[in-house]
């Protein structure tokens, strides 16, 4: 059973995992590949990031704002006292090593932390350094990718077997009870993939099978969307030359596909050190050459996208705010992101797309937008689009006692 190509773009088909707004990406990889340093840079906080394995024991949890020029533009137009961007939730998970699925290096605890997130940033190291130790004493990103994938598949194999046994045991307690054929066919297919070291997310699944996987094995690690982050030296990142990148691309293509984002902790840290010095920052970037810039914003956007999250805006004199919702959410569900009463008493949504607002609005006035027929009234079946600007009408009456 061969894997099919995976894509970072949502398809609208049945999806693995939870469908909620508070989803989280976890940063996963071997020890000393740059996970905690990257986490610090993304979230602007100081988690421990020392040069020895298992520095991070308990997972660090934080969030980082999602960069968006649309949001920045709305804030500039309205200049309200309160602003609130969208956020990507992140977890920095301790480094895994070979044998983690059998408990090596506190592996079972760390793998359970991966089960708790909804998507994975797989960070892999592609630079040599005498100052930064490597758990296997030599740098080989493709070997490291094999190690992590193998450990995740083994962990899932044990988890799936335990869930199957528990369901079958419960079924035996009821006379003449039988588990449906889809139970066996789905789990058999999952176990066959995992036995061949193939992540579940890369399989060719029907919508009923996806629903059954979400029901039976909701914490399956290899169903989670995955983005590969390749940590290069500053020299390789700036020159856009690395002997490892073509090999990593070949490995990813042969293992289900996915988005690869080359970056450099060394470069990003050097750039961050100029955060309060605009002239110094500009001079540093000038020495790096044309087109070289931070890729942290792209990481955040891609992580947000693979979780199939979007947001709509509320904008006015008092506040400009992004409200995170799952892709495909209907208008009442979007209203519920603001307050449960908005969803319970939903009447209608007054909607204008960001593009129409920017093109047609005369300052803050909606007159030209309404005249162009771009200010719409939508009902309960409206599927909210990313970047919609919405005002909700609702009515909640207090029941008489």
Automatic annotation (TrEMBL):
InterPro entries: ATPase_YchF/OLA1, Beta-grasp_dom_sf, G_OBG, GTP-bd, P-loop_NTPase, TGS, TGS-like, TGS-like_dom_sf. One of its GO terms (molecular function) is ATP hydrolysis activity. It comes from the Eukaryota. The keyword ATP-binding applies. Keywords: ATP-binding, Hydrolase, Nucleotide-binding. GO terms for cellular component: cytoplasm. Residues 308-394 form the TGS domain. This is Obg-like ATPase homolog.
């Amino acid at each position: 059973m061969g894997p099919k190509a995976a894509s970072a773009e949502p398809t609208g088909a049945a999806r693995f995992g939870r469908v909620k707004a508070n989803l989280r990406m976890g940063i996963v990889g071997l020890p000393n590949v740059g996970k905690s340093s990257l986490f610090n840079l993304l979230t602007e906080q100081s988690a421990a990031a020392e040069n020895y394995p298992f520095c991070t024991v308990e997972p660090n949890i934080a969030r980082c704002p999602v960069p968006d020029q649309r949001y920045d533009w709305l804030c500039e137009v309205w200049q309200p006292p309160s602003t609130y961007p969208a956020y990507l939730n992140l977890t920095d998970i301790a480094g895994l090593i070979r044998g983690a699925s059998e408990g090596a290096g506190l592996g079972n605890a760390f793998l359970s932390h991966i089960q708790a997130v909804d998507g994975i940033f797989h960070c892999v190291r592609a630079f040599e350094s005498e100052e930064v130790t490597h758990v296997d004493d030599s740098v080989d990103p493709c070997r490291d990718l094999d190690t992590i994938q193998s450990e995740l598949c083994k962990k899932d194999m044990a988890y799936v077997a335990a869930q199957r046994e528990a369901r079958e045991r419960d079924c035996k307690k009821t006379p003449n009870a039988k588990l449906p054929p889809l139970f066996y066919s789905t789990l058999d297919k999952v176990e066959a993939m995992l036995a061949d070291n193939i992540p579940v997310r890369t399989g060719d699944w029907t919508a009923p099978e996806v629903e059954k996987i979400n029901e039976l094995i909701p914490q399956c690690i290899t169903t989670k969307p995955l983005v590969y982050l390749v940590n290069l030296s500053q020299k390789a990142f700036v020159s856009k030359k690395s002997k490892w990148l073509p090999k990593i691309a070949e490995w990813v293509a042969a293992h289900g596909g996915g988005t690869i984002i080359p970056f450099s902790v060394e470069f990003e840290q050097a750039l961050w050190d100029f955060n309060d010095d605009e002239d110094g920052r500009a001079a540093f970037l000038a020495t790096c050459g044309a087109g070289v810039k931070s890729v942290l914003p792209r990481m955040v956007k891609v992580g947000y996208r693979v979780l199939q999250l979007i947001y709509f805006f509320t904008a006015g004199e008092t506040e400009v705010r992004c409200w995170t919702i799952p892709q495909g959410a209907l208008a009442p569900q979007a209203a519920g992101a603001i307050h449960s009463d908005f969803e319970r008493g939903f009447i209608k949504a007054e909607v204008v797309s960001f593009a129409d607002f920017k093109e047609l609005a005369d300052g803050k006035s909606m007159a030209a937008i309404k005249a162009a027929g771009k200010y719409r009234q939508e009902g309960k079946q409206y599927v909210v689009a990313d970047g919609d600007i919405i005002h909700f009408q609702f009515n909640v009456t207090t029941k008489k006692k």
